[in-house]
Amino acid sequence: MKALFIGGTGIISTAISALCVSRGWELYLLNRGTRSAYVPEGAQVIQADINNIADVEAKLRGMRFDVVADFIAFTPDQVERDMKLFEGITSQYFFISSASAYQKPLSSPVITESTPLANPFWQYSRDKIACEECLTAAYRRNGFPITIIRPSHTYGDTAVPLAVRGKKGSFSVLERIRQGKKVIVPGDGLSLWTLTHNTDFAKAFVGLMGNVHAIGETYQITSDESLTWNQIYAAIGTALGMEPRLVHIASETLAMLCGDYSGELIGDKSNSVVFDNSKVKRAVPDFVCTTRFDQGVRRSIDHIYGNPALQEPDPDFDAWTDAVIDRYEALTRELPKLW
């Protein structure tokens, strides 16, 4: 079996690439070659920019694939490009959507693939919805062989999942916890969230590759473990050997202070989510997540602190966090008491 991944070296796709090779797939990764350290032994790299259509067509000429998966398509024009490139040369095309596309706020506490898609708070999610609509129309119109995947919050060795962080990743928050500094958690920290280790995600994804039952279908792939954000930060603190000092601030307040948080929090992480994964389990009967978050995050933290390249400080975010917490706590102390 032969597969082509567009990207293939990100958090989700790295684990999938490694599992594919281990299961005997002939795997090609089409990317710009900037993350060669994450290419598994046995995979072949086709160095190209997917947006350079002429170059990609030349490099793929005469090739055919059982599976093509694009891990870096975010907008309808990008999936339109893919359909032109891969129609007739693949038996199955995977689009990686997002569980953030589900309606906010949710009308039902349990999310299935039939939960309506509508996110007025995050353009990223609306673009993913538009991509799904474009691909579904192509499947209905001419049978373009789509499989749509909706991941939720998936993590791996190179980053720790957090509710509030800066643009440079998780290390700054990890250091705050390790040094006994206060960290921000949205709301009261009691909303439920689902975190999936990338090696678990890969089991379901690879099980859908070449699976005739997956053509024309949509699947969400997540762990069945639900944790509050307070529990998530407590597990991170345990892995770091420090009890985190949490400061709870309303998501609406954080969104007012940082535009990015409108989508990431109000449109996603501040909402309680519980996923029903029965559909993907029917398609991939041996799929089961075996990495609890407290186990997976310990592995992530060990990897990050063992690799200096992943230890990037974020002084701007650090200073912003200190300033927000100081002003918030000062204002709270000044509020009038009722009794």
What distinguishing features does this structure have?
UDP-galactose 4-epimerase, domain 1, 339 residues, single chain, alpha/beta, 3-stranded mixed beta sheet, Rossmann fold, 2 domains, 7-stranded parallel beta sheet
Explain this structure to me?
The structure is a single chain. The chain folds into two domains: 181 residues, 3-Layer(aba) Sandwich (Rossmann fold); 107 residues, UDP-galactose 4-epimerase, domain 1, CATH 3.90.25. It has twelve helices and 14 strands. Helices cover 41% and strands 18% of the residues. The strands form four sheets. Strands 3-2-1-4-5-7-11 form a seven-stranded parallel beta sheet, with helices on both faces. It has a three-stranded mixed beta sheet with strand order 8-10-12. The chain is globular. The protein is an alpha/beta fold and 339 residues long. Strand 4, helix 3 and strand 5 form a beta-alpha-beta unit. The model has no long low-confidence stretch (mean pLDDT 96).
